[in-house]
Amino acid sequence: DAGVIQSPRHEVTEMGQEVTLRCKPISGHDYLFWYRQTMMRGLELLIYFNNNVPIDDSGMPEDRFSAKMPNASFSTLKIQPSEPRDSAVYFCASRRTSGGLDEQFFGPGTRLTVL
Amino acid sequence: AQTVTQSQPEMSVQEAETVTLSCTYDTSESNYYLFWYKQPPSRQMILVIRQEAYKQQNATENRFSVNFQKAAKSFSLKISDSQLGDTAMYFCAFMRGYGQNFVFGPGTRLSVLP
Questions:
Q1: Nearest CB partner across the interface for B101, out of A33, A99, A106
Q2: Which residue of B has its CA nearest to A110?
């Protein structure tokens, strides 16, 4: 299995531009999570999906952020317009729920820099 | 809301020595799940060990073991025979129940010194 795949691995953009981060979860996993990691705030959950349906988006910082999961094998996190304070590492993770002790598998992350 | 606290922002240990990382959490749930994740400089998040709250026996994975104290809401990680490759950020995580999301602590940066 290839694991959770994220693209791009690095993104540098200018303030005001639209940014789209992509994630392919592990096949068969029914949960997908988007996290943001910064030095100041640590690892924050932004949103998570179950069977492609958003369950909790209370961590999405503001309306500039949106996430979609059109099918079981693909999700996007979009920031429009981007701001310098959005600079962070964004992780996607997936999990197959089988009864409790379910490991959450993380992708390698996307390092976003907004100038 | 559940919270996870890791009171040691940074720690260091000599190679081959033993180190314990602390984690406490706050919950009113009776059953839940606890995890330790490791994030080396490559930034890949890697599961180290996991524990179900209803199991009294402490989980062990090779050199890694936990001391789970349910009444004290404490879940510390012990690393024995520390190796240079153990240098990483370590995150404690709590999952309230089946199918719920994780709540992560702020992390402890561990340096293993030669």
A1: A33
A2: B43
Q: Hey, which residues does B102 pair with through a beta bridge?
A: B95
Report the chain A residue with the minimal C-alpha distance to residue B47: A103
> What sign does the CA torsion over A1, A104, A52, A91 have?
negative
The per-residue pLDDT for range B30-78, each reduced to its tens digit, is 888 999 999 999 999 999 999 988 888 899 999 999 999 999 999 999 9
Residue with tokens 């996991």: B50
Token pair of A69 as six digits: 């999961």
Handedness of CA B100, B101, B106, B108 (dihedral sign): positive
CA distances to B6, B57, B58, B76 from B53, in Å: 18, 10, 10, 13
In angstroms, rounded to a whole number, what is the distance separating the alpha carbons of residues A97 and B95?
12
- Taking only the tens place, the pLDDT of each residue in A21-69 is 999 999 999 999 999 999 888 899 999 999 999 999 999 988 999 999 9
How far is Cα B79 from Cα B86, in angstroms, rounded to an integer? 9
C-alpha A57, offset from chain centre: 12
According to DSSP, the residues that pair with B26 across neighbouring strands are B3
Answer whether A49 touches B (CB < 8 Å). no
